[in-house]
Specification:
binds phosphoenolpyruvate, 8 strands, alpha/beta, eight-stranded parallel β-barrel
Length: about 250
């Protein structure tokens, strides 16, 4: 059983509509109960729902984040995009940057670095995703990939106090497969070792659900979880938090 502050970040990806808001009532009630322990809840809905989530969560302690942002610090002629200032302005306090689903669309470490810098300037907390693909894992390149992602992604960012690193092995996302505990422990340790000073908080993401949380919560160097599929069910999301604290 853990007694530390743990972060539970719900990544709704491209799911959810106005009807989904009702399902959050359960989470709001839960967030006000004792069962939440020291859990901190953050929801990252699609852009279209941020404003509605903000209204819904106004009187509770659930935070909101964007799922990505444009790299430009300023407004500009970028059709279809949203920057970090706009996210902050609409009530978000967090933003996910570097998710593998965005990296697959062509986002590279340099672009991610720019996004992170401007998100920090906009006073957002950054959930910086890193992780190796299955091919890279098989070629035993996990550590070199993570090193590069961290080195370039956080290039010239001195103050890392508002950065969370989410270790999300690409092969674990949406597959139902999670890393072996000993491997995860080792990788999180490795990530922490990359920081001379106090390391950022490290989250794990990839197929977290109410069943495997019992094993994952025992890995004591993890500061929380980034949860995709399971977070779209309020029941499962609440279960994950509850089981972390029992
Ligand atoms: C994610 O996409 O960040 C994620 C962790 O997804 P899932 O939980 O569905 O694997």
């Amino acid at each position: 059983m853990t007694n530390k502050y743990m972060y539970f970040i719900a990544n709704w990806k491209m799911f959810g509509d106005l009807k989904s808001l009702k399902s959050l009532d359960k989470v709001i009630k839960f967030s006000k109960s004792k069962n939440i322990g020291k859990g901190r809840l953050i929801y990252c809905p699609p852009y279209t729902l941020i404003s509605s989530f903000w209204k819904k969560f106004k009187n509770c302690q659930i935070d909101i984040g964007g799922q990505n942002c444009h790299e430009s610090e300023n407004y500009g002629p970028y059709t279809g995009f949203v920057n970090s200032r706009m996210l902050k302005n609409i009530g978000a306090n967090y933003v996910i940057i570097g998710h593998s689903e965005n990296r697959e669309q062509g986002e590279n470490d340099k672009l991610i670095n720019l996004k992170i810098k401007n998100a920090l300037k906009a006073k957002l907390k950054v959930i910086f995703c890193i992780g190796e693909t299955l091919v890279e894992k098989r070629k035993k390149k996990t550590q070199s990939i993570l090193t590069k992602q961290i080195k370039v992604g956080l290039y010239k960012i001195k103050n890392k106090s508002n950065i969370f690193i989410a270790y999300e092995p690409v092969w674990a996302i949406g597959t139902g497969i999670v890393p072996k505990s000993e491997d995860l422990l080792k990788t999180i340790k490795f990530i922490k070792s990359k920081f001379k000073d106090k390391p950022p908080k490290i989250l794990y993401g990839g197929s977290v659900n109410p069943h495997n949380i019992k094993i994952l919560k025992e890995i004591n160097n993890i500061d929380g979880f980034l949860i995709g599929g399971a977070s779209q069910s309020s029941k499962k999301f609440i279960d994950i938090v509850k089981k972390t604290y029992t």
